[in-house]
Amino acid sequence: MTKVLVVDDEPTVREVVAGYLRRDGHEVAEAADGTRALELLESDPPDLVVLDMMLPGVNGLDVLRRVRATSDIPVIMLTARAVESDRVAGLELGADDYVVKPFSPRELAARVTVCCDAPTAARPRHSDQSCTGHSLSSRSADRSPSTAG
Cα separations (Å) of 135 from 11, 23, 102, 138? Predict the structure, then answer.
């Protein structure tokens, strides 16, 4: 069973996302702010993180930086920040995917499943996690980068 940490300061968003992920068979932990997310990442590391960018206390980009400093746990950004520069910043810092609010919970759950089911070779791993993902900057040899927008 894949363990997913859902980090969002909006309780309704956390509840809906957690519900869809549990329905799909994932174990879910929740955090309402960046500080609690970092605590959970340290004490009970998940296999994947769904991370809001705009969080009270430690913001989502800082959480992502700290995750990437020690781990390659897949991270899907879930945020209302829709401008290209924000999406690019999140991806350049190491996010594996970026979903803009408002969003489809069903689509997000599908993205989590795809990220978890991606072959290990598609993304170098620094830790022994059961969930593997892929990133735009580390593509398998048989695929070329795309500029689809």
Answer: 28, 26, 23, 5
